[in-house]
């Protein structure tokens, strides 16, 4: 089972990717559990899981998630969400989540999760947010004890197929001074446009809480358009299918011409960050229109055309990955080097939901870290 402590290096074999300062923008709490923790939490509450040891359970998650379908991929969360229904479970998972970020060299992370999915055993929405924040703070203290410094903020998420968007938006605003930095909608994308949650997005805009929206993963350009204009999204969760608005044509003289459609041009010109997650995008079939190998991912196309691309894990457990591993895979696929990695991290820092001055401080931290690499 891959974890954040596995070491990755650039092609020269000398530069440690793990040691580089990194920013994680798209990372689901219920997709980042340790298999051993799932087993222990499941045992404590009598919850049935599909394997009896950590290694086998980790393999089950990766195999089950590698389905080519977002719906099948999301089904694996029945297990992780099932063991995250108590204060103790939520706090422990959040604490270990932050520990694993720190071990992977992350200096700023935003963790997204849906409180409405964690109230089955009687917790209130506010209690779930408080439990996760307690775990985050414990994890930060643990990292500090190991000489590492990082910050982590919560992205409170509403499930787009449910009818609780405004309630969850109000929850996010209530906790904005106690760990919450932004809002998201997630879940089944196809058939559940962002416009269905318009009341929530209006409320968030009125209260100046920033928004990212899952779009362009299991649905195409209309979903992205809705995220931008109904959701007022400042970032696109995945957004990989924005490449459908880009045409590449070859002429008779073997020249290549690229045509960018109006929607893609808007995203590019406004520097709206794409929260791309290479391994996850393969697993869910998000890049099926381009191929079934990482080299087919439109990541490089978007990067070369000047879009604000960022690298993310999405769900570390389901993809058996870490941020360092995702960067390593991209380097293998497209030949990226230290300079490219720095661009990706600065893109993420600038797109984070921190205040402007703090975003600049984060960028300075990244620049200093890469200079010393």
What does this 3D model show about the protein?
With 373 residues, this protein is an alpha/beta fold. The chain has a single domain, classed as TIM Barrel. The protein has 16 helices and ten strands. The protein has helices at 35-45, 54-65, 70-75, 77-82, 87-103, 125-145, 165-174, 198-206, 221-229, 262-269, 278-283, 299-304, 316-319, 323-334, 338-351, 356-371; strands spanning 22-28, 106-113, 151-159, 180-186, 212-215, 235-238, 246-250, 256-260, 273-276, 309-311. The protein has a four-stranded parallel beta sheet with strand order 1-2-3-4, sandwiched between helices. Strand 5 (212-215), helix 9 and strand 6 form a beta-alpha-beta unit. Helix 1 crosses helix 2, helix 5 (87-103) runs parallel beside helix 6 and helix 15 (338-351) runs antiparallel to helix 16. The chain is globular and about 70 Å long. The two termini are 27 Å apart. The model has no long low-confidence stretch (mean pLDDT 95). It comes from Agreia pratensis. Belongs to the metallo-dependent hydrolases superfamily. Adenosine and AMP deaminases family. Keywords: Hydrolase, Metal-binding, Nucleotide metabolism, Zinc.
Give the helix/strand layout.
Layout: E1 22-28, H1 35-45, H2 54-65, H3 70-75, H4 77-82, H5 87-103, E2 106-113, H6 125-145, E3 151-159, H7 165-174, E4 180-186, H8 198-206, E5 212-215, H9 221-229, E6 235-238, E7 246-250, E8 256-260, H10 262-269, E9 273-276, H11 278-283, H12 299-304, E10 309-311, H13 316-319, H14 323-334, H15 338-351, H16 356-371
Parallel strand pairs: 1-2, 2-3, 3-4, 5-6, 6-9, 9-10
Antiparallel strand pairs: 7-8
Organism: Agreia pratensis
Cofactor: Zn(2+)
Protein name: adenosine deaminase
């Amino acid at each position: 089972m891959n974890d954040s402590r596995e070491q990755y290096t650039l092609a020269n074999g000398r530069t440690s990717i793990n040691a580089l300062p990194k920013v994680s923008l798209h990372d689901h709490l219920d997709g980042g559990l340790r298999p051993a923790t799932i087993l222990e939490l499941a045992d404590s509450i009598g919850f049935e899981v599909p394997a009896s040891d950590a290694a086998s359970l980790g393999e089950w998650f990766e195999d089950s998630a590698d389905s080519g379908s977002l719906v099948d991929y999301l089904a694996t969360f029945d297990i992780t969400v099932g063991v995250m229904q108590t204060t103790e479970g939520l706090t422990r998972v959040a604490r270990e989540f932050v520990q694993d970020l720190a071990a992977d060299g992350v200096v700023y992370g935003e963790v997204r999760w849906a409180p409405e999915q964690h109230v089955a055993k009687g917790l209130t929405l506010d209690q779930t947010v408080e439990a996760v924040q307690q775990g985050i703070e414990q994890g930060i203290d643990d990292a500090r004890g190991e000489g590492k410094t990082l910050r982590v903020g919560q992205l409170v998420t509403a499930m787009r197929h449910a009818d609780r968007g405004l309630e969850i938006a109000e929850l996010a605003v209530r906790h904005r001074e106690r760990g919450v930095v932004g809002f998201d909608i997630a879940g089944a994308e196809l058939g559940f446009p962002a416009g269905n949650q318009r009341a929530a997005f209006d409320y968030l805009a009125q209260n100046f809480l920033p928004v990212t929206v899952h779009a362009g993963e299991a649905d195409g350009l209309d979903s992205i358009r809705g995220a931008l204009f109904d959701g007022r999204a400042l970032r696109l969760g995945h957004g990989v299918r924005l490449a459908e608005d880009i045409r590449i044509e070859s002429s008779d003289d073997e020249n290549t011409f690229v045509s960018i459609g109006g929607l893609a041009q808007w995203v590019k010109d406004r520097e709206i960050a794409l929260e791309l997650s290479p391994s996850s995008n393969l697993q869910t079939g998000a890049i099926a229109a381009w191929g079934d190998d990482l080299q087919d991912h439109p990541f490089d196309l978007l990067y070369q055309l000047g879009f604000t691309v960022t690298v993310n894990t999405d769900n570390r457990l389901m993809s058996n990955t870490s941020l360092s591993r995702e960067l390593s895979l991209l380097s293998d696929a497209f030949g990226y080097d230290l300079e490219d990695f720095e661009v990706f991290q600065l893109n993420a820092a600038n797109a984070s939901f921190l205040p402007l001055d703090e975003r600049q401080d984060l960028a300075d931290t990244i620049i200093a870290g890469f200079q010393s690499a």
